[in-house]
Amino acid sequence: MRIGIIGAMASEVDGLKAVMSDMRAEKISSVEFCCGLINGCETVVAEAGIGKVNAAVTAQTMILKYGVDCVINSGVAGGLDESLNIGDVVIASRTAEHDMDTTPCGDEAGYITGLNRVYMDCDEKLVRLLCECTREMGIHTEVGTIVSGDQFICRDDQREKLIGVFGGKAAEMEGAAIGHVCAMNGVKFAVIRAISDGANSDSTMTFPEFCKMASENSIEIMKRMLTKLADTEE
């Protein structure tokens, strides 16, 4: 099994590259793809950049060029659920593009023409294994809908819409685009996000401090996840 891992920022993937053996790298469409072994699992790692288009281009390349069997997207997100605090984790059960809006044509908010749906379901096995990893690490984890759009969510009315319309637990800018591409290609996917800010969080942690902590946790989760995936193939 070949696993694709996509992060938006260097801090989300550099730690994985550092533990990759037999690594080879090439740049396609300005994105560097690093291939090798991590904990016995054949892996392709890429830093996509921020936003849905960057994420979609990277996911499509991973699928067509490198033939990955599944794609895992990791990174940070804003918390929508009041139970979430900085450093907690949300694992997507499904994703939706909250800025996709053809409602004037009579469609539901987030409806994707062609796929003819609003939500892209994540692979149940990948979700279960990711939950096992975070539970082993003692990280508070919620499973639910992660919504994506090319905008920062910083106002109460935005947050209320994403909760009320989509049932969102976390909001970010890449996961649903990767889910969209994977759904088009029939490839399994998962999205995991560390919470960088939350509706009820009063933490004094700075964003650089949080990113360092989140990146370290994310790398450890991915390493554990790849070990579990390698074991299931034996």
Structure description:
- The protein has a five-stranded mixed β-barrel, surrounded by five helices.
- With 234 residues, the chain is of the alpha/beta class.
- The protein is built from six helices and ten strands, in the order βαβββαβββαβαβαβα.
- The mean pLDDT is 92.
- The longest helix is centred in the last third of the chain and has 27 residues, at 207-233.
The mean pLDDT is 92
Rg from alpha-carbon coordinates: 17 Å
Unreliable stretches, pLDDT < 50, 5 or more residues?
Answer: none
Q: Percentage of helical residues? A: 25-40%
Strand fraction band? 25-35%
Mind sketching the topology for me?
Blueprint: E1 2-7, H1 14-18, E2 21-28, E3 31-38, E4 41-47, H2 52-66, E5 70-79, E6 89-97, E7 119-121, H3 124-136, E8 141-148, H4 156-166, E9 168-172, H5 175-185, E10 188-197, H6 207-233
Parallel strand pairs: 1-4, 1-5, 5-10, 6-8, 8-9
Antiparallel strand pairs: 2-3, 3-4, 5-9, 6-7, 6-10
Helix pairs in contact: 2-5, 3-6
In a few lines, what is going on in this structure?
With 234 residues, the protein is α/β, with parallel strands linked by helices.
Which short descriptors sum up this protein?
234 residues; alpha/beta; five-stranded mixed barrel; 6 helices
